[in-house]
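Sequence, please.
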């Protein structure tokens, strides 16, 4: 198992990266000593010396990579690029690559990251439907374009249920947690397809109609590439205890809503800790509250 993520220079990204690495080393059980790789785009601004020292203490390797400023400016393009780079480095060195958004915290040993022999990808559905395609409705123009561009076979489309609003949609996976077999080169296919697609005039028409299409096109292309690459029985939907969105906790009315974070294996948080009253709002017991409070800058 190798864990990988992305880090940008700046307080917010650096804090997230430190939290993720610290949580792996503290809570990941048999995986707590697994390699952790971070990737950062080469820019004039550099990671702070304090953060680099702390990452070194946590035995995290940081790899700079080159990417054009134009590509990097597009939402999540750097993230897709870095994921493919992590996969290429992991080939021959890791059986499994856990590509994680930096705003992830691991609370328990992620045993489900070790995929069964007949599975090639571990994923979670998206949090909200947003630009997703409802399974019981006709394919809308955006997703018809995604499927046509990615050459998705019709017989590979099946329903998944979004995490927070509980809607049945066509396969639409959260890009913040992908467990892959590097030798399958899925993340390379994602990058290559995305880099060709996002500039296409047919996609840009959707960006002009609604900026959410630009924000989430990387995730939609991921869904298309996954369906083209793997049959449904090769895709493992990780349990609800993985990749839970803490920042959407108050919106969760599903039966799967956890009472406490301690029930989870991994969770995401986005801007949750920017709230000055997060300690009052977080559904967690005192030991976890204290662990977080010691690591989150005030």
């Amino acid at each position: 198992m190798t864990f990988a993520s992305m880090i940008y220079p700046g307080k917010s990204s650096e804090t997230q990266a430190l939290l993720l690495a610290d949580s792996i080393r503290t809570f990941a059980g048999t995986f707590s000593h697994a390699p952790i790789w971070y990737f950062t785009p080469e820019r004039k601004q550099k990671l702070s010396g304090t953060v680099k020292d702390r990452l070194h203490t946590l035995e995290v390797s940081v790899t700079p990579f080159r990417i054009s400023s134009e590509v990097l400016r597009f939402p999540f393009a750097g993230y897709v690029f870095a994921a493919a780079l992590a996969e290429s480095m992991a080939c021959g060195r890791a059986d499994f690559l856990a590509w994680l958004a930096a705003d992830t915290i691991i609370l328990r040993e992620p045993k489900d990251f070790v995929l069964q022999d007949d599975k090639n990808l571990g994923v979670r559905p998206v949090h909200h439907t947003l630009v997703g395609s409802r399974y019981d409705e006709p394919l809308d123009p955006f997703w018809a374009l995604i499927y046509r561009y990615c050459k998705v076979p019709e017989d590979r489309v099946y329903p998944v249920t979004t995490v927070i609003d509980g809607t049945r949609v066509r396969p639409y996976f959260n890009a913040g947690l992908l467990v892959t077999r590097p030798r399958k080169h899925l993340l390379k296919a994602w990058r290559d397809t995305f880099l060709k697609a996002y500039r296409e005039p047919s996609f840009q028409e959707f960006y002009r109609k609604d900026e959410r299409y630009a924000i989430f096109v990387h995730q939609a292309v991921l869904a298309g590439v996954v369906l083209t690459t793997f049959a449904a029985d090769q895709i493992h939907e990780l349990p609800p205890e993985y990749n839970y969105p803490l920042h959407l906790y108050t919106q969760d009315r599903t039966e799967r809503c956890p009472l406490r974070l301690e029930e989870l294996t991994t969770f995401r948080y986005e801007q949750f800790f920017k709230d000055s009253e997060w300690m009052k709002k977080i559904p967690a017991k005192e030991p976890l509250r204290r662990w977080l409070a010691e690591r989150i800058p005030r």
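The radius of gyration is 19 Å.
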